[in-house]
Design goal:
Largest sheet of chain B: 3 strands, antiparallel
Largest sheet of chain A: 6 strands, mixed, barrel
Low-confidence stretches of chain A: 1-8, 477-484
Distance between the termini of chain A: 36 Å
Order of helices and strands of chain B: HEHHEEH
Oligomer: heterodimer
Radius of gyration of chain B: 16 Å
Number of strands of chain A: 22
Helix content of chain A: 40-55%
Structural class of chain A: alpha+beta
Low-confidence stretches of chain B: 1-6
Strand order of the largest sheet of chain A: 3-4-9-6-8-7
Radius of gyration of chain A: 38 Å
Number of strands of chain B: 3
Mean pLDDT of chain B: 82
Chain lengths: 883, 111
């Protein structure tokens, strides 16, 4: 619309206007002087005759501007009528544009919010995490150690040269006792400087300050906003009140900002830098997460170099925490919170919507090209009647702008709805708890600019063509040609071929996601997850330190639970399936070996296998009495037997679990007698390989995380409150954490993300297919309608309807096949990347590929067949007259 | 009207300009002189009001303008009629004749 303003800012036009009017005045003055007036008098009279100079200048400017405004309005009215005349075209073009803009904006917004700006924290792009990766253990490469013992953390804090702050945090369970009820909360101990570094002003009250970390400081804490709202009714009068947390009265000094959720905790407690224990005498957690803030100008590479030097020194101080050969890796914090798998999926989604945007732009381009050719004659006529080239271009520009603007409008609506939908259905724990998914303005602008660019480019391209073309030629030729000139139909066909190729790539990718999900679902878990309630049971540490104390709690509790109506079995378990227990080094009597043997170790009570409905393969399970007494008996799994016993009979043999001698409540002489063999069940997550596993009585040590597994006869969730009552009755200071059905956890942690990914990619593939169908249909329908005349002659000369259909379909299929061929090549190239991020599929899955090709060809065939049929239904006499 | 002189009827100025310009390229001052001279000073308007009309007609594509030297060697903006302008003039003159015939007829027969 530059021409609108041209006259306001063009100095030349302004100068000329001035010159023209002054010329008039001077001529008049000269005339009066010639007639005998004095110079002053002549000037006065001339000015009087002329009227206000400035006023007429303004009127001249206005005359031009108003004229342009008129034209502008008229152009748009005309464009609107032209689009209205061909509603199907306008609808499809706007629909394609809106889908492209909407879906790409929605996905890119999610990626931006989840990966690039996930936190409300100050300067998050300079926050980094550091991880120790073993160089000898490629399978664990991704899951290096990211936590540090407190002395080690202090060493990094003091010795590094690359951070201007390094803060640590450690999770701990806190039981809040309010007198009648116990609430279990997740707390985070934080080190000095945490609130200053994160730099988010609290909602009310204050954050933790340097004085709070002093050894003699009064005990305080800060609540998370969401916890304060959901568990304490957002009561502002709680500020300054004292809460008994793990037996220590602490003052609530602030409520953090709504999005502040550091470490995912409910509350934050300052960690005194010197004291080894929390006030209650409970030791601080052993390992601490560490987040550093890079000094200005320091890159992650430079930080890595510096930290590796320190790590090389520290590995001799803390040898048990470092692998033999290792490397320290520094990752941006926003990147570290989303699982690597989901992160790579997000990038795949980005690629997919990118393709979608391309397809929709291609579609719009083709529609515009086709439309331009059908209007060639209209333009030729108008240009013959004297419409200037600029006028024609202006009008097409107006049409394109109308299309683009309405496409953008609907696109924004789709993006808005898409972002709302995505953030609602995104599985829990996929992104950081601080992350808020919302529409990103910059991304939206980008998508709109890309599609507007397409519309304007392809909307104008034909205008330039049409206005340049030979009038007589197109007047004669138009309407009866063989489908437009070769050059332009070539461009159209190329766009279609490209669209088909892109769509095949999308379909194939979606197929791979489906296959991966099917593979995931067909995995044999080895246990029955339905009707099982699981919960962690963080016991007050002051009271439960030894095995005997533990047994004094669980023995009566399990008896109470088993006698509850609706409960079939109840068991203690240290870890919930599909995860085994902690990892220990094992030795077996009578076997010597050079490398370390490992096994997972599960602490459980007698009903463990009954709850999961597992039958032992061999031997027996330990009894209730043996479990409560902590007898040194062990059940091993099939993998253990196969790997370490070479299929000898293991019953009665003795195994040594050395890690029991190193834990806080150590046992002496950790040799266990094998009394049974269990079938394999998944113990490293659903997808992980099954490891050797050992089950031992829960009361052999007071150490370790404890939990409950209860088999119920109805929906397990109904029993949460009754079970909570029994726990309180057994010990009023104990409370369950995260009670939930096992099936729910399995779904959430194993299937929810892949299902989400699968649905998303499928939606993209379907939209892509839809757009391509529209694209193929519009081009074939167009070229068929152009050949109505030709078909009429052919049929008049005796060609059958079938022959005509075959001709049209063959033409369309040629394009489709070419697109499929290119699509296959690009699918193979891309599938390598996709497959590396998927579980249980190969890159050359012939089934998926065949299905994708078949689906595409089928839909493409239909898109050709319908216009072909229509062409044959026209009677020859009509089609000969057809223009 | 004061002193028996008339303002332009709406739209007639455009027609008069087109008519004057039709005889060949001419600059704004000369156009105003011609109109006053032909109408024997019947129309009484500020000379400046000619220019917005000239610019409007130029924008519509009825006039085209060119900067040329006058006889006295000064540079001035000369207006000329375009093909569209000539057609427009014919249409307007036709309309005008029809209108004035109709008005004259009514005035004659109404007595």
């Amino acid at each position: 619309m530059g021409w609108l303003r041209r006259y306001w800012y063009e100095p030349l036009a302004e100068k000329r206007l001035d010159a023209e009017l002054r010329f008039h005045l001077e001529q008049q003055i000269t005339a009066y002087i010639t007639a005998g007036m004095s110079g002053d008098e002549a000037r006065r009279r001339a000015n009087l005759d002329f009227g206000g100079l400035e006023r007429f200048k303004e009127e001249c400017r206005e005359a031009r501007w108003k004229h342009h405004l008129d034209i502008f309005v008229r152009d748009f009215q005309f464009a609107f009528r032209a689009l209205l005349k061909n509603r199907r075209f306008a609808f499809i073009a706007v629909f394609a544009l809106a889908l492209g803009i909407g879906s790409s904006t929605a996905i890119f917004s999610v990626v931006d919010n989840a990966l690039l700006e996930p936190f409300p924290y100050k300067d998050q792009r300079h926050l980094v995490v550091m991880r120790v990766h073993s160089l000898d253990n490629p399978e664990h490469e991704r899951f290096g150690r990211g936590v540090y013992s407190y002395p080690e953390f202090q060493d990094y804090l003091q010795q590094n040269h690359v951070f201007d702050a390094l803060i640590g945090n450690a999770e701990d369970d806190v039981v809040y006792s309010s007198g009648e009820n116990n609430v279990r909360l997740a707390s985070n101990y934080v080190t000095p400087g945490t609130f200053e570094l994160l730099g988010v002003a609290p909602y009310i009250g204050r954050g933790l300050e340097p004085a709070d970390y002093q050894p003699s400081a009064p005990p305080v804490f800060v609540f998370r906003y969401a916890t304060w709202v959901s568990k304490f009714d957002a009561d502002p009068s709680l500020l300054g009140k004292s809460f008994t947390l793990n037996g220590v009265p602490r003052t609530l000094v602030g409520i953090a900002a709504p999005r502040f959720a550091w470490g995912g905790a409910d509350l934050w407690i300052p960690r005194d830098p010197i004291a080894p224990t929390v006030l209650s005498g409970r030791p601080y957690p052993a390992y601490w997460g560490a987040i550093g803030h890079l000094k200005p100008g320091v890159s992650t590479r430079e930080a890595e170099a510096d930290l590796n030097v320190i790590a090389k020194r520290l590995c001799t101080v803390y040898p048990q925490d470092y692998p033999k050969r290792f490397i320290m890796e520094v990752t941006l914090f926003p990147y570290a919170v989303v699982s690597p798998q989901f992160r790579s999926w997000l990038f795949i989604f980005c690629g997919a919507v990118g393709l979608l945007l391309l397809i929709s732009c291609g579609n719009v381009a083709n529609l515009l090209l086709v439309r331009a050719v059908t209007r060639e004659k209209e333009f030729a006529v108008r240009s013959a009647l004297g419409a200037s080239r600029s006028r024609l271009i202006r009008q097409l520009l107006a049409e394109s702008t109308l299309l683009a603007v309405s496409g953008a409008f609907w696109g924004i609506l789709i993006a808005w709805a898409g972002v709302r939908l995505l953030s609602a259905v995104m599985p829990q724990f996929t992104v950081a708890s601080e992350t808020v998914i919302e529409m990103n303005g910059a991304v939206l602008m980008f998508a709109i600019v890309v599609s507007m660019g397409t519309v304007l480019l392809f909307g104008l391209f034909p205008a330039l063509q049409a206005s340049r073309c030979d009038l007589t030629e197109s007047l004669r030729d138009s309407g009866k040609g063989m489908g437009g000139s070769a050059g332009r139909s070539g461009l159209r066909n190329a766009v279609i071929v490209l669209e088909v190729a892109l769509s095949l790539t999308l379909l194939f990718t979606a197929g791979l996601f489906v296959r991966s999900f099917m593979a995931l679902q067909s995995i044999q878990l080895g246990f029955q997850a339905d009707h099982v309630l699981t919960a962690r049971l963080p016991l007050p540490p002051a009271r439960y330190k030894t095995a005997a104390q533990l047994s004094s709690f669980f023995q009566p509790l399990l008896l109470r639970l088993k006698s509850m109506p609706g409960v079939s079995y109840a068991a203690e378990a240290s870890t919930m399936p599909p995860y085994g227990g902690f990892r220990s080094v094992v030795q077996i009597s009578g076997k010597t070996h050079t490398e370390d043997w490992h096994s997972l170790v599960q602490l459980c009570s007698e009903d463990y296998f009954s709850v999961l409905r597992i039958e032992l393969l061999d031997g027996r399970f330990f009894s209730a009495a043996e479990a409560n007494d902590g007898r040194k008996l062990a059940i091993i799994n099939q993998t253990f037997r196969r790997r370490y016993f070479d299929d000898e009979n293991p019953i009665g043999r003795r195994i040594y679990l050395s890690d029991f001698e190193k834990v806080p409540d150590p046992m002496k002489d950790a040799w266990f007698e094998v009394i049974g063999v269990a079938p394999d069940m998944r113990n490293q997550g659903v997808q992980g390989p099954i490891e050797p596993e050992v089950w031992v009585p829960y009361a052999v040590t007071g150490f370790g995380m404890r939990g409950l597994m209860v088999r119920t006869t109805s929906d397990p969730v109904f029993l949460i409150n009754p079970i909570a009552r029994e726990i309180r009755a057994t010990d009023p200071t104990a409370a369950m954490a995260q009670p939930q059905s096992l099936a729910y956890y399995l779904d959430m942690f194993t299937f929810a993300q892949p299902r989400f990914a699968l649905q998303l990619v499928s939606i993209f593939a379907i939209i892509g297919l839809l757009l391509v169908t529209i694209g193929v249909y519009s081009v074939i329908a167009y070229s068929t309608s152009r050949r109505t005349h030709e078909f009429g002659i052919r049929m008049a000369l005796g060609a059958g309807a079938g022959e005509v259909v075959r001709m049209v379909v063959r033409n369309g299929l040629k394009l489709l096949m070419l697109g499929v061929a290119i699509g296959l090549a690009s699918s193979f190239a891309l599938s390598r990347i996709v497959v590396s991020q998927l579980w249980g599929v190969s890159g050359h899955d012939p089934f998926v590929l065949a299905l994708a090709v078949a689906l595409l060809l089928l839909v493409g065939f239909a898109a050709c067949w319908i216009p072909a049929r229509r062409a044959t239904r026209v009677s020859p006499s009509t089609s000969l007259r057809y223009e | 009207m004061a002193e028996g002189k008339a303002e332009f009827l709406k739209g007639t100025l455009d027609m008069l300009i087109l008519k004057v310009v039709a005889s060949g390229p001419i600059h704004g001052y000369a156009i105003s002189q011609r109109i006053q001279q032909i109408s024997r000073d019947f129309f009484q308007v500020p000379q400046g009001s000619l220019y917005p009309a000239l610019h409007r007609l130029e924008e519509r594509g009825w006039l085209q303008a060119e900067w040329k030297d006058t006889d006295t060697g000064r540079e001035a903006k000369f207006y000329a009629l375009t093909r569209k302008g000539r057609k427009q003039l014919e249409t307007e003159m036709l309309h005008w004749e029809q209108l004035s015939d109709a008005v004259a007829l009514i005035l004659r027969t109404a007595d």
